[in-house]
Amino acid sequence: MRKYDRLKKEALEGCEWRGHHMNHFSSATIEYAHRKIGNSICKDCGMAVSIDTDPPANGIDIGGEAVALNCK
């Protein structure tokens, strides 16, 4: 499984555990850094989750309110 797909799966599982119903991930590729970034927003409350296949130093690969807080 590719890293992007694995991160997306982990992020969605975390969001669903918090009670969110997430939209499809939008993705962008940053060519110079060879990294892929994706975002998704909860259909109910608007909280977001983002993933980054190659985060900067001290960065995180999965983050956002949707993986940290329960759906309102």
In words, what does this structure look like?
It contains 2 helices and 4 strands. About 25% of the residues are buried. The protein has helices spanning about 5-15, 65-70, and strands at about 25-30, 35-40, 50, 60-65. The protein has one domain (about 5-70). The chain is elongated and about 40 Å long. A 4-stranded antiparallel beta sheet has the order 1-2-3-4. The model has no long low-confidence stretch (mean pLDDT about 90). It has about 70 residues and is of the alpha+beta class. The longest helix is centred in the N-terminal third of the chain and has 15 residues, at about 5-15. Helices cover about 25% and strands about 25% of the residues.
What attributes characterize this protein structure?
about 70 residues, 2 helices, elongated, alpha+beta, about 25% helix, single chain
